[in-house]
Amino acid sequence: MTIELDFSKFNGLLPAIVQDHQSAEVLMLAFMNAEAWAATLKTGKATFYSRSRKKLWVKGETSGHVQLVKEIRIDCDNDTVLLKVEQVGGAACHTGHRSCFYRQLENESIKTVDQPVFDPKEVYK
Length: 125
Fold this sequence. Notes:
Ubiquitin-like (UB roll); mainly beta; two-stranded antiparallel ribbon; 2 helices
C-alpha cells in the first residue's frame, strides 16, 4: 500500500511530530513539504522545511544532534506524520534542551522544568 500524504491543507506543508522511539517523549514539532518527506524516506534522517528560512533542513546538520528515524506513523487524514527517532547527542531543541517542550504552565506562569543538555552558544558559533 502506497501512502500519499495530503500536503494541500497547510500551503504545501504538514506537521511532523517528533518523538523519542524508546521513551515516547515528545521532542519537537516541525513541518515537512513533499521534498522534506522524500528526503527523510531516502536518508533515514529527519528532514524538515524551515518556514523562517524557506528551505529544507536536516535536523542536527549544524549541531550534530541528528534524528535517526526508527518508525513513521501517519494519521488517519494523511496530513500529519509522527516520527519516532533516535535523538543523537541527547538534545532536540536549539536552546540546548532535550525537548522543545521544556517549559510548563503553572499557576498562570511559565516554569522551566528541564536543564539544557548543551550550551547553544558553544554549538552554534
